[in-house]
Design brief:
Rossmann fold, single chain, 9 helices
């Protein structure tokens, strides 16, 4: 259950893209049995946009449209077990595998934008995968899977004596310890400028983690986004403009 993300209802587009003249190009990417559904918008240097746990590429379309208009080739894709990509289970390790496949097929990104769990993946994309991003934008970033363990066991009523066993099985399933997937710790070795946008009253991921991410990531800036919640923040015109303006101020190849 912990490794099974909830599915969103499939949608083909949103008004953010429909109201522009942009044409989206859909692709199916594969590496053996590992398959992903991806879409690109615009032309220019690649910008990789990463949705969160239980989300889909549709969540990132307003940002994809804005960055495409600003001269980037926005790449959105459904992570394993999400959206139109096959499978039921997923993990941060699977997110990173997907990012590696997309970068190899569609170009290594000069910009990475991540939301929530995708924000954690963005950090590891830079620090672990070595993706050559010149800048990163994190919306409501989650610190990693360990953050959700306590919430999950409370939600399902798992007895305390079963928790260690569940975590051991998760570690066996993903192939690495939980502590190695802490994005706040990984951010200490990030070496590109970053913008972090987060609602101080976010009910899904505490604002505290945005503050810790800012403190860990040298060269990062935190912008509070009051009253926008965890997901509406992705559609807010002011926050989108803030993100685009931040990226425009960075040098590009």
């Amino acid at each position: 259950m912990f490794a099974t993300p909830p599915r969103q209802k499939a949608r083909k587009t949103t008004s953010a893209v429909r109201n522009t003249s942009m044409q989206g190009y859909h692709l199916e990417l594969s590496d053996g049995p590992f398959r992903l559904s991806a879409t690109t918008f615009g032309d220019g240097p690649p910008a990789m946009l990463l949705h969160g746990w239980g989300g889909s590429a549709n969540d990132m379309l307003p940002l994809a449209a804005a960055f495409a208009r600003a001269g980037w080739r926005s790449v959105v894709f459904d992570m394993p077990g999400h959206g139109r990509s096959p499978g039921r289970e997923s993990s941060l390790v699977e997110f990173l595998r997907a990012m590696r496949l997309v970068a190899g097929a569609l170009g290594r990104p000069e910009l990475i934008v991540g939301h929530s769990f995708g924000g954690a993946a963005a950090v590891f994309g830079i620090t672990e995968l070595g993706l050559p991003a010149r800048a990163a934008v994190l919306f409501s970033p989650a610190p990693g899977p360990a953050y959700y363990v306590d919430r999950f066991i409370r939600a399902v009523g798992l007895p305390a004596e079963r928790t260690d066993g569940m975590v051991r099985q998760l570690v066996e399933r993903v192939g690495r310890p939980m502590e190695s997937l802490d994005a706040v710790v990984a951010a200490r070795s990030a070496d590109v400028p970053a913008l972090i946008v987060h609602d101080p009253r976010d009910r899904e991921v505490s604002f505290e983690f945005a503050e810790r991410m800012r403190d860990a990531w040298r060269g990062s800036r935190l912008v509070p986004a009051p009253s926008l919640g965890h997901r509406r923040i992705l559609r807010d015109a002011t926050m989108i403009e803030t993100a685009v303006d931040f990226v425009r101020s960075r040098p590009r190849s």
